[in-house]
Amino acid sequence: MANFAKPSAPHFSVEVYQNEFLPEGGREVHAILTVTSTGGAAATRASAARGPAAVVVMVDCSGSMDYPPEKMRGAREATAAAIDTLRDGTWFAVIAGTHTAREVYPGQGRLAVADPATRARAKEALGGLTPSGGTAIGTWLRLADGLLRQSPAPIRHGILLTDGRNEHEDPAALRAVLESCAGRFTCDARGVGTDWEVKEVKGIASALLGSADIVADPARLTEDFTLMMEKAMGKEVADVALRLWTPAGAEVRYVKQVSPSVEDLSGRRTEAGPRTGDYPTGSWGDESREYHVCVHVPPAAVGQEMLAARASLVLPGAAGGPPSVLGQGLVRAVWTADPATSTAINPQVAHYTGQAELAQAIQQGLEARKLGDVDGATAKLGRAVQLASVSGNADTARLLAKVVDVVDAAAGTVRLKAKVADADEMTLETRSTKTVRVKKT
Questions:
Q1: Partners of residue 188 on adjacent β-strands
Q2: What distance in Å separates the CA atoms of residue 89 and residue 123, rounded to the nearest whole number?
Q3: What is the helix, strand, coil percentage profile of the chain, to 5?
Q4: Exposed e or buried b for every residue in 370-382, given b needs 16+ CB within 10 A?
């Protein structure tokens, strides 16, 4: 394979939003970190011929994709559109997934390099996407991992489409594959139709730091695949970690991505030195994300202050060398006797605490509804409606209105709808973790 020059990386900035004031003896410090990456799109355009990415598309070809036939036809058309979206120089492959995984293009255990000729041949090969057999998603991911590992590209990405449950593979086998693939490539996962399992598809995307969504109508697959591939082509720097250092006696209670969606990263910490841990954030282009950090600090007297945490965005060093620091922000703690100062809640912290509660209320409400717990479902989904209204999360409010009749949004008063379309319920569940930013005043 050819050698490619390394493009310039985007610039990262870290802004910290918090109320640093604590009452005497107070221990819990909350902060929202707004991380913004800029300059990547220009660098990507300048390096378009250098192919810094590798992508594998995994298409469900189980027998159910033929019921109705529009699913398989839509999958072929969407994959063709994704192939057309690849920029020249990108390594790529297409996999047909059933109870096994089969290379459709280019085959022979290798990746192709995108150019007009390989894109044309890949689209011709999509006739090999034919429905039969079962579903074992772990085999698809394992094959994709093996193919992607051949490429020296820093950006390694998968797109996975399924229409059903992972019925021909033990759940433990899929979990093991996800654990082995984590950190090696990111993956966006999509469910087409309404016969797949939301928790399964979201679990795949979560483990591999990608996005999950529903495409209930197969006719919308082309639009969705095109957007996914455009975003993948816009990524410029991979393997970025959020590194948190805390002083002696302090500890990180949790780290959550809270925008553009809620994702708890706390359990993914890897130690990176004394009192220092790394939390994976995946690949970045021109974009902004926000993280909620909670730190327990040693109690102190009025007038004292301390650095509660140092947050850095880091890239692994080459050949085992020191990491590159892309951006940094400081989280502080100051003890005060003024109760008005110490009890004030920072608007960003309050907003994203509410957004995390919104996601949880939706998930708990839908689970209660499935179990026939009308009172529990009504209470939780009512609270979700209230939180969506207060925060201005109009998209989630619209999805909730397809599951409940809203009597009073501000009060959270709702009635469960007697009949709800599967697609509406699954869309609400799939998109429950999507958040909105703090409203500008």
A1: 159
A2: 17
A3: 35, 30, 30
A4: eeeeeeebbbbbb
Give the ranges where 254-346 is alpha helix by DSSP (H).
339-343
Mention every residue, 6+ apart, whose C-beta is less than 8 A from residue 315: 9, 237, 239, 240, 241, 323, 324, 326
The closest of 100, 99, 58 to 75, measured between CA atoms, is: 58
Instruction: Report the pLDDT averaged over residues 194-219.
Output: 98
Sequential DSSP letters for 81-117: HHHHHPPTT-EEEEEEESSSEEEEES-TT--EE-SHH
Q: 0.70 cut: is pTM over it? A: yes
Burial 79-92 (b: 16+ CB within 10 A, else e): bbbbbebbbebbbb
What pLDDT is recorded for position 8? 54
CA-wise closest residue to 91 among 40, 162, 8, 154: 154
Q: Which of 41, 37, 166, 146 is nearest to 95 (CA)?
A: 146
Nearest CA among 188, 281, 178 for reference residue 238:
281
Whether 7 shows a pLDDT value over 70: the answer reads no
Please provide the average confidence, as pLDDT, over all residues in the chain: 94
- DSSP E strands, 380-429: 404-408, 413-416
pLDDT above 90: residue 50? no
> pLDDT tens digits, residue range 79-114?
999 999 999 999 999 999 999 999 999 999 999 999
